[in-house]
Amino acid sequence: xxxxxxxxxxxxxxxxxxxxxxxxxxxxxxxxxxxxxxxxxxxxxxxxxxxxxxxxxxxxxxxxxxxxxxxxxxxxxxxxxxxxxxxxxxxxxxxxxxxxxxx
Length: 103
What we know:
By secondary structure, the protein is α+β, with helices and mostly antiparallel strands. About 35% of the residues lie in helices and about 25% in strands.
């Protein structure tokens, strides 16, 4: 179920909160009215779990929340890699869901 009035602008507005206090290093790749693409290039959460030797445990509670959050915001979400899983960055790609009635 989507949050009423949610969309790309809501996702864009939330990004500073996720990266606030140096929580994440975010690099915006593309931002339009219908999509937002950014990379997370630094993640202290991933560093913490990696130092503990349990990166897979960090992936489950942190990274997996991105999918239901995007659904609630009415956006399609794609991510092909995460720092938590060993990549050099996480690739976040959001796009507004197309209204089936408009096609």
